[in-house]
Amino acid sequence: MALRDLKQLGLPVVEGGVLLAEAWSDLLTEVVQTADKGDLSQLNPDQPQALRQMAQALRQALLEHPLNLDLSPVLESVQAPWLLLRPSLFLADQEPGTPQKAAELLGLLTARPCVARPDAIAAELKQLWAEGLRAGNLMVWRRHCQSLRQVRLAALVQPLYPSEVSGTVVLGERAFSLEAVLGLGQALAQGEAVPARCQGNLQQLERISWQSGYQERVYRLREKPSMVGSAGLVVQVREEPELPAPLTLEQVQELLRLGRQVQQQWSLPVRLEWLIYKHPQTRQSSIVITQASRWWEALKADVLVTDQPPGAIPGQAETAAPHYEALLPEISGVVQGIGAASGRAIGPAVVLQAGSLAAQMTLPLGCIVVLPDLQPEMCVRLQGVAGIVTVRGGATCHAAILARELNIPAVVGAPQATELLKTGDALWLDGDRGIVYLLPEDKTGRPLFESRSFAQAADPPVDLPGSPGAAAGSSATQVMVNLSQVQRLGDLPLEQIDGVGLLRSEWLLIDMLEGRHPQQWVTAGYGVDLQARLVEKLAPILAAFAPRPVRYRSLDLRSHEWISLAGSPPAEPNPMLGIRGTFSYQLDPRLFKLELGALAALQRQGHTNLQLMLPFVRTVEEFGVCRQWVEQARLFQTPAFQLWIMAEVPSVLFLLPAYRRAGVQGIAIGTNDLTQLLLAVDRDQPVMASAYDERHPAVIAALAHLVQTARQQGLACSICGQAPVRHPELIDALVQWGISSISVEPGALIATRRAVLASEQRQRNPF
Fold first, then answer.
1. Do the beta carbons of residue 156 and residue 90 sit within 8 Å?
2. What local confidence, expressed as pLDDT, does residue 45 receive?
3. How far apart are CA 493 and CA 60, in angstroms?
4. pLDDT band at 449 (very low <50, low <70, confident <90, very high)
5. 19-37, pLDDT tens digit by residue?
6. Which of 119, 344, 603, 707 has a beta carbon 3.0–4.6 Å from 737's, enabling a disulfide?
7. Residue ranges per domain, the chain?
8. For range 415-428, the mean pLDDT
9. Region class of 355: left (phi > 0), else alpha (psi between -120 and 50), else beta
10. Was domain 478-764 assigned CATH 2.60.40.420?
11. What dihedral angle (degrees, nearest 10) is formed by the CA atoms of 302, 308, 314, 320?
12. What helix, strand, coil percent values describe the chain, rounded to 5?
């Protein structure tokens, strides 16, 4: 193991114990027998469904298998209240002693924090092992092994240090690049902070210059865990967010000295993760290396080298030696933003300035598109792109949500991305960590890598206890999907889903508008055509989920998101609080009545599972007017039809009884808008990302009030914002409060189902 090798050299590496790979191997042997899987040679990348089914069968068998492992020696060796499980991997074709950190292959396997208790360690250890059995990882293992039994996965158990500063450093032959943030590395890993950076020549350390960063919040360790929020962490808000050089010249020199010692051992460019903490007894600040890897091998293992033979399997690239002299500063975090859509992508950049995508109907296949902002009407032109980078936006902005639904790796809120990158640059994008790297070229000017997207594949159908198709019966809390793209139906495990909890109508309409604003269709007399197209788009979704409900959310057209379409009204000064939602229907009801006509036509076709949700309802009076129009469209004649409202304007908190009396039959909590309005934080502003937190006490109180009051009033209550996906620990509280359903993006369905079942099980058996 790399850290063990460095410890033998006398370097200051993190203390800790090791859960040996034998524990993984023993459990894996039983899992493979249970699932009747394990022969990697049979995997075929051209049969993705079979690959996903194998992966899911293995993961399910592993998670359900009991873990008989004595963890007391590890707890005795690591005396700390909070621990970190770091994966450490050895593969069959590795030369013994080679410190290849395949466990750190750009997010394939990630470290997992946990409480220093045997039950917590066991639970997180199984989750870590399950990550190793995902479909994409199986293809990586296949590159090295014929059987899963040849994959040796150990886990380093390390204490979580109360770090003052943390970051990374990459050393090449002559150059280095260093990034640092205050406190724990959480702000850096989540893309909440722009780290302070310095880079330079290893032979001229006296000329180091820093580029200031920006960090609003600093993560520290708390003494005891909290019930809701990031376990073990406390957040300190900085009054002055600018982040100047957080290290002294002596500390930088010491870090580089340690890095050079590692280089002398490995004879390669290296990447170190490090922290500086104050020893509780001596009160002296010490540097600790928490992770070390051969930088080029860690990068190369996750990409496709261009000169591999035709038909080669992704991840099976030959390991020809690259040109290390160009490693730095070319391979460095040229831009950092917010990880918006999971996965990694490699491809040539296509940089677009404001408005340029409207005129460009197609984009090159496999490119990474870089643009100021991603508006909904652009998604029709994104088919086939490998990745997305935007200058503006936060983790819950529409660009992020759209990228996740399209399953395209994305980074949003990346400052100056359109200035720092240029068309033709070879980019590597990490949508999990929110980083975009500029890749080097060989001496002929040819990129070293082919275009490739490593987006996370959706989990295949699996009979989970409590899922709609399982013999064991359904869970009390329904798990539904947020869906608006018809083409995604084929990727969904339909039998695992209780219905569509949120269908965004404007995204459903995108590819049928032909570059014209919906309002122009009506004004120009083409409303009948638009209505017919809407019926055609909705019908297959209703049929696929019947008899389960499909909740269609009517149009919520924010002016700035449709500005490039012909006939669009001018953008408002504050479109987030402008003419949108049900208020816009009163100003001009034509589009809403067109939608109601389409829904009535679908009911006449026999689709009885349709429900309607009204967006951004500000007042009971607005709802009352809309209900009258719904009655006039005769939608209530279908017994299963229901009329819901989105609970996203804070005034709803005080008016639920009045809404029930006015005829509301259910509420869907939209945490994206509700959070930004409660906290006065624009979720589209990346610089405010650290202040946007669905775990804020005010937001938690609002969620509890809405769910519990809805139950008291006899109203169904769902949640369809990003909060349960971004913070799964909230699911337990939602289930305890009595939420009727939780609706999430397709990639989070299986995990959400498991979390709901576990929470309901704990309620039934609290002891």
1. no
2. 54
3. 15
4. very low
5. 877 888 888 777 776 555 5
6. 707
7. 2-159, 163-297, 332-455, 478-764
8. 86
9. left
10. no
11. -30
12. 40, 20, 40
What does residue 351 show for φ and ψ, rounded to 5 degrees?
-95, 125
Residue 398: how many CA atoms within 13 Å on its side-chain side?
18
According to CATH, the topology of domain 163-297 is D-amino Acid Aminotransferase; Chain A, domain 1 (3.30.470)
Q: What is the 3-state secondary structure (H, E, C) of 159-198?
A: ECCCEEEEEEEEECCCEEEEEEEECCCHHHHCCCCECEEE
Show Cβ contacts of residue 333 under 8 Å, excluding neighbours closer than 6 positions: 177, 179, 195, 197, 435, 436, 437
Instruction: Show the tokens assigned to 236.
Output: 């300190």
Please give the C-alpha separations between residue 184 and each of 160, 187, 235, 290, in angstroms, as whole numbers.
9, 7, 10, 12
Number of helices (H), then strands (E), in the chain? 24, 31
What does pTM read for this prediction? 0.58
pLDDT at 657: 96
Measured distance CA(31)–CA(57) in Å, rounded = 9
Residue type, 412: V
CATH class of the domain defined by 332-455: alpha beta
Cα-Cα end-to-end distance for the chain: 40
Tell me how many degrees the CA angle 552-557-559 measures, rounded to the nearest 5: 170
Q: Average pLDDT, stretch 166-170? A: 89
pLDDT value at residue 446: 43
State how far the Cα of 317 lies from the Cα of 116, in Å rounded to an integer. 40
- Cα 756 to Cα 106, 460, 476, 724, distances in angstroms: 30, 18, 9, 11
List CB contacts of 31: < 8 A, sequence separation 6 or more: 58, 61, 62, 65
- Unique residue bearing structure tokens 């370097």: 11
Write out pLDDT tens, residues 495-533: 889 999 999 998 888 778 887 889 889 999 999 999 999
Q: What's the full length of the chain, in residues?
A: 767
**Minimal CA–CA distance to 467: which of 753, 150, 130?**
753
- pLDDT tens digits, one per residue of 580-621: 999 999 999 999 999 999 999 999 999 999 999 999 999 999
Which residues are within 8 A (CB) of 550 and not within 5 positions of it... i.e. 6 or more apart? 499, 500, 503, 538, 541, 542, 609, 610, 611
Other C-beta atoms closer than 10 Å to the C-beta of 422 total 12
